[in-house]
Amino acid sequence: MKNLIFKNIKICSLLLILFCFISCGGSDDSSSTDTIDTDTNIDDNTDTDDDTAVSTSINISSAFGGALYIDNQYANMSLPLDIELTPGTHMLALGVEGDNQGYYRKEITVQDGVGQDIEFTLDDLATPRTWRVLWLSFGSGQAPGGCETNISQNFIDIAFNNFMQGIESIERNAFNSIQWDIERMDLISESVTTISFTSVPDPNDWTINVNEQPNGIVDFLENTKGMDLTEYDLISIYWPSFSVNGSCSYPTRYGGLAREIRRNDHSIGIIEAPFFTQNGSPVHPDPYTYVHEWLHTVELFYPNHGITLPVGIDGRAAHTNPQTYGFDDVVGLYGAMFRGNIFPIDGTTDFLGMGPEGLWAFNLEDLSRTSSSSPKIIVDLK
After folding, report:
1. Cα 374 to the center of its chain, rounded Å
2. Residue 163, phi-psi category: left (phi > 0), alpha (psi -120 to 50), beta (remainder)
3. Measuring CA to CA, which residue among 180, 161, 159 is closest to residue 171?
4. Residue 116: helix, strand or coil by DSSP?
5. How many CB atoms lie within 10 A of CB 186?
6. In this structure, how many other beta carbons lie within 10 angstroms of the beta carbon of residue 58?
7. pLDDT of residue 113
8. What are the CA-CA distances from residue 291 to residues 137, 234, 284, 342 (Å)?
9. For a disulfide at 327, which of 128, 190, 248, 322, Cβ 3.0-4.6 Å?
C-alpha cells in the first residue's frame, strides 16, 4: 500500500516539473510589450496578437440622451448601448429634445477588431441648415375684366401665423437640424392677377398667375421688383379668392397648389394657399396645409439621394394615408417623416422619412440640382 502511494507521489511530482518547464521555459521579455492601444484604436508596431479576439463593439453614450441615427437611419435604440458596426466610416447622430435640444453629429472610423467608446457632448451640436423662404401676400385679386377681391391686413397676419406654425413644426420635429430664414413681403396695396385653372373640370377653379410671362408673379418679382429668386428654396403666396364682405369671389375647390420653377440648374418651390370659401364659409389655410404643399416641392427629389419616403397610392409622400403606418392623422405622420422613424410595412428594416440628416444635408437647391423630378403643378382638392 505504501509503495503504491509513493509511486503516485513520484508521478505527480514529475508531472508538476514538466508543467513548469513547458509554461516557463519559452518565455522572454517581448511578450509583455505586445499590446493593443484600445484608447486610440491604433495597434502599436510590436503587436503580434490576433486582433480578431478583440471586441468590435462600439459603445455609444450621451449625457443628455437622444434618438440615435446611424448613417442617416433611425436606430430605434436607447443610449447607452453597445453595437457592432462594420469597418469603415460611419456617421452617428443624435436628435435631442429638452434643455439640450438640437441635432448632434459625429463621424467615426471603425477598424476591424477594435472597440471604441463614443460619447456625445455639446461640442457635437450641428449648426442648423438654412432653408430660405419668401412669404408673399397680396391684398386683392383680380381677373382680366373681372371683379376685384379684397382682404384685410388682420387676415393676412392670421395666414402668416399659420404658416409659421406649420414650418416651425418641421423645424421642431427635425430636432432643429434646420432653420428657416424667412422674408415676409405684404403687398397690401397690390392686386394679383388671377386666372382660370382650366385643367380642373367645371366649375373652373381660379388660381394666381405664376407663369413666367408678363403680368405673372415670377415676372413681377424678377423684373418689376428686381429680385433674385435663386436666393430662395420656397416662395409661399397668399391671396384672396374671396372678399370678406362677400361682394366678389373666384371659385376655388383646393386648399393649396405646389409648383416649381428652374433657375441655375435647380428648383425653387412655389406654393399657393389662398383665402377661400368652403361650404359657404371663409377658410384660412391651416398650418398643415403649408407643410403639405411644401412636401410636394421636395418629396420627389429625396429618392435621388438614397432617402426613401412613404408614399400614397398616387406616389406622393404628402398623400400618404396616416392609418397605413399606424398614425391617427397627418400631424403624427409628418412629424415622424421629419424624424425619419416611420416603420416600414413591407418588412424591411430601414425606417422611412427624410430624417433630420436628410433635412440638414440638403436644402431644395441641393436636392434638385442637376435634375428636375418635381411635377410642374400639383392640385390638392378639398
Report:
1. 18
2. alpha
3. 180
4. strand
5. 16
6. 20
7. 84
8. 17, 12, 14, 17
9. 322
Mean pLDDT on 256-279: 88
Predicted local distance difference test score (pLDDT) of residue 10: 41
Nearest-CA neighbor of 232 among 191, 172, 180?
180
**Residues of 351-378 as b/e, b for ≥16 C-beta within 10 angstroms?**
bbbbbbbbbbbbbbbebbeeeeebeebb
Structural domain boundaries in the chain: 50-124, 129-381
Please return the burial class of 212, using the count of CB atoms within 10 Å of its CB with bins 0-12, 13-18 and 19+. Answer: exposed
CB contact set of 361 (below 8 Å; sequence gap of 6+)? 129, 305
Work out the number of other CB atoms within 10 angstroms of the CB of residue 274.
Answer: 29
Cis peptide leading into 128, omega within 30 of 0? no
Between the alpha carbon of residue 261 and those of residues 185, 227, 278, 308, the distances in Å are 20, 15, 29, 24
Query: Does the structure show a pLDDT above 80 at 261?
Result: yes
- Closest to 237 (Cα-Cα) out of 278, 262, 269, 274: 274
- Grid coordinates of 130: 438654412
Q: Between residues 144 and 118, which one has the greater pLDDT?
A: 118
Centre a 10 Å sphere on the Cβ of residue 230 and count the other Cβ atoms it contains: 13
Beta strands in the chain (DSSP E): 36-37, 42-43, 57-62, 67-70, 73-74, 81-84, 88-96, 102-110, 116-120, 129-142, 148-150, 178-197, 205-208, 234-238, 254-263, 266-272, 276-278, 281-283, 377-381
50-124: CATH, from 2.40.37, 2.20.200, 3.40.50, 2.60.40: 2.60.40
- Prediction pTM value: 0.81
Per-residue pLDDT, averaged over 9-16, amounts to: 39
pLDDT in tens, 94-134: 999 999 999 999 999 999 888 899 999 999 999 999 999 99
Looking at residue 222, the DSSP 8-state letter turns out to be I
Which amino acid is present at 232?
Answer: Y
Compute the distance between CA of residue 240 and CA of residue 251 in angstroms, rounded to an integer.
Answer: 11
The rounded distance, in Å, linking the Cα atoms of 330 and 316 is 14
pLDDT recorded at residue 376:
66
Closest C-alpha to 361, from 101, 74, 130: 130
